[in-house]
Amino acid sequence: MRASPAETRTASPGLPAKPFARTFTAPLYVGAALNPINSSIIATALVPMATDLHVPVGSTAVLVSSLYLASAVAQPTAGRLAEVLGPRRIFLSGIVLVLLGGLVGGLGRNLATLTVARVLIGIGTSAAFPCAMVLIRRRAQEAGADAPPGGVLGGIAIAGMATVAVGPPIGGLLVGSAGWRWAFLINIPVTAIAMLMAVRGLPRDPVPGRGNTGFREVAARIDLPGILGFAVSMSALVIFVTGLPGVRWAALAVLVLTGAPTVVWELRKTAPFFDFRGLAANGALARTYLRQALTLLGVYSVMYGMTQWMEAAHGISTAESGLLLLPMGAVSALLARPLARRNLVRGPLIVSAVTMLLGSAGVVLLTSHSPAIAIVLVSLVFGVTSATTTVGNQTALYLAAPPEQIGTASGLFRTFGYLGTITSAVIGGIVFRDGASDHGLHSLGLVLVAAGLAVLLLTVLDRRLMYRTTGRRPDTSGHVGDSENPTEEHPA
């Protein structure tokens, strides 16, 4: 397939002939795969892990939630650090943390040690996506590209979706043949490969100027108080949400007591970590975050909720249920790259919303007597949803985020996605509180229909999505990407 102009055009004599050559993109793809593969492989290791450590199976759920929580907090933090300290440095630091987490987990003898390992892995893998977006954006600007490098962005999307699809089968083979510790130790060879690729292929960061490397100077530039306030507030929010429908009053109190001062602090900063005013002014970016959260809520509700229902109400084995949902990941991976190459935004997002509605209606119609082909069809529909929302929103993020804030914006994009994923688990727990029955599945489907309608409205009523922007200029507030009359517009 012919490469897009953003991938072939060069303007800076200091750049290689092909600015997006494989030596540059390969480490970014491997890095992007680290988080999803660690998210999915662990599912196959929870039961043998609990047996070996002599703990209840339910207690191992902390290994799943700890990675999600660490990732939700660390993604925008890594993005901010990449903007200030350099994306290559933060990318390599993240790989080192994943390697350390793999070693700690592989040698761990109790659940507390394994939880520490998962937190290290969550923080380390969180560096990949925001650093990749910073590197891609800078390389495109240096090359004089006037459009997003769709093929490269598509490759990032595929790396994530493909590893989610193949993670459980790989995990099953590893755990079944070598033991649960390989759910951690697999990170050692993968990070070694990623480290070698990154050292050889990623451009070196500029040398910091004198007076910019001290702790106080760096802390001021990255807004350390804002990062710490965000981290505590986000942790409290996630703990509160995961406790629903019960109320965790301690988490709610921490959220209020840290969240309010953090908002006041950020509003007073001239260069805040979380730019509330900038996000309010940049409606295109805010809507991108909301669409991503709501759509992933639907995708992961199906991935987790239907799995429980198939095993409990339909009598399907764990292995069979995994195979029935495998087409969902396969379709996502197959569609992502050709869609991304065309730099389309509105079309894929409309398809995402419509297919989410169709798939949700299909969930409402399923019963314990439905044939396996009906389940596969629903999963295929949500596979299209997953691909189109990832590609559309990722390109929308690239266009809407201010270039100098692309790292933080990319991290927040992932954070909103994690919030959608976490909320899907909460909703699943509520609708299946009396067992994974047909009634619970239908209730889940109705929730997803409502979420799909919200995504559709956020898409069709968004005037900014009616055009594909290639030229960009700052608006009067100093933020880029939310002007209703961009410099150059072409119908998407």
What can you see in these coordinates?
The chain is an all-alpha fold. 73% of the residues lie in helices and 1% in strands. The chain is built from 20 helices and two strands. The chain has helices at 5-8, 22-41, 46-53, 62-85, 87-107, 111-125, 128-142, 150-178, 182-185, 187-201, 215-222, 224-242, 249-268, 276-281, 283-312, 318-341, 346-365, 372-400, 406-431, 438-460; strands at 467-469, 489-491. It has a two-stranded antiparallel ribbon. The chain is globular. The two termini are 20 Å apart.
Short key terms for the protein model shown above:
mainly alpha, two-stranded antiparallel sheet, 1% strand, disordered N terminus, disordered C terminus
Which runs of at least 5 residues are low in confidence (pLDDT < 50)?
1-11, 468-492
Number of helices: 20
Shape estimate: globular
Rg from C-alpha positions? Answer: 22 Å
| Strand/helix succession | HHHHHHHHHHHHHHHHHHHHEE
Query: Could you tell me the number of beta strands?
Result: 2
Largest β-sheet summary:
2 strands, antiparallel
- Secondary structure category: mainly alpha
Summed up, what is this model?
This protein has 20 helices and two strands.
